[in-house]
Amino acid sequence: MLETSARLLALLTLLQTRPDWTGAELAARLGVTGRTVRRDIDRLRELGYPVHATRGAAGYRLGAGAALPPLLLDDDEAVAVAVGLRGASGGTVSGLEEASLRALTKLEQVLPPRLRHRVRTLRAATLRVAAPTPEVHPDTLMAIAETCQRHELLRFDYRAHNGTLGPRTVEPHTLVHFSRHWYLVAWDVDRTDWRTFRVDRITPRIPTGPRCAPREPPEGDVAAYLSMRLSARAWPHQATVLLHRSADDAAERVWPGTGVLEAVDEHSCRLHVGSESPEQLVWMITSVDLGFTLLDGPPELVEALHAQAARCAHAVRDFRSDRSD
């Protein structure tokens, strides 16, 4: 039989692994009587763990309390939390850097030597290079997240790309962290259409509006909709090509900021791209390095593809692979 302290830790670990346990199940797993389980539950409550009794068969559930009690993490979980805190210390949400570093310091102090060595080794061997990114205040994120959760109209002042400031009223749907920026995907009430908004340009107005009926996500997938808006539709020149490879295979070659993939069948997929000029479209399409068929695009793109093909043919016209120095 386990000693009392070890048994308490084992009991706490079991309570964290699933929502509900009966007293008989806990007793069987720990090799003790039901009376011992009840005494150990009382000890956990005295230590600040909110263990609630469940209705029906005598059982228990670990709930959320007013204060944060100690947590039990296995080796992989502890390392994952440490790595996550290190990333958050240089993230895009302002005000979290110091809190993340404080939490990371506390965690590293209590890690056993073997895990502390793993975390420090990983930190010493890696370098994080982040491009300058506008920071988002956590209060703004929380205000938007709460309106998404409660399905309430959100009113805010929005600073457009050209610097102009104007009021907007939307039905917020989802917050998305995409390519170093936070975006709000929402139904614009005044424009009666879906829109995306950079969160760092949003200043919420208080109070929020009345409740609104939840809407189905735009085009059935918020992530795909946002990717399309940012990588293709936002540009003056757009094109769609059929790649002669499955979407899963092509995904390894297409960076999310380049374009949006749309599966067709197991042998092909569509790639939607957008850019400042037809010449840049040519580069984006050919850089995927897969066979393709042009499905849709401006006439200038056809000319640019012919010009690129002619340049490539001219470059190798007099080249002989067997030439020697």
Q: Give the ordered list of helices and strands.
A: HEHHEEHHHHEEEEEHEHEEHEH
| Total of DSSP H or I helical runs spanning 4+ residues | 11
Q: What are the segments in which pLDDT stays under 50 over at least 5 consecutive residues?
A: none
In whole angstroms, the N-to-C terminal distance is 82 Å
Give the tally of β-strands.
12
Largest sheet: 5 strands, antiparallel
Radius of gyration: 28 Å
Share of helical residues: 40-55%
Shape: extended
**Oligomeric state of the chains?**
single chain
Mean pLDDT: 84
* Strand adjacency order, main sheet: 7-6-5-4-8
Beta-sheet strand percentage?
15-25%
Secondary structure category: alpha+beta
Task: Lay out the secondary structure.
Elements: H1 4-17, E1 21-22, H2 23-30, H3 34-46, E2 51-54, E3 59-62, H4 75-88, H5 96-110, H6 113-125, H7 138-150, E4 154-159, E5 165-178, E6 181-188, E7 193-198, E8 202-204, H8 222-233, E9 237-243, H9 247-251, E10 259-265, E11 268-275, H10 278-286, E12 292-296, H11 299-315
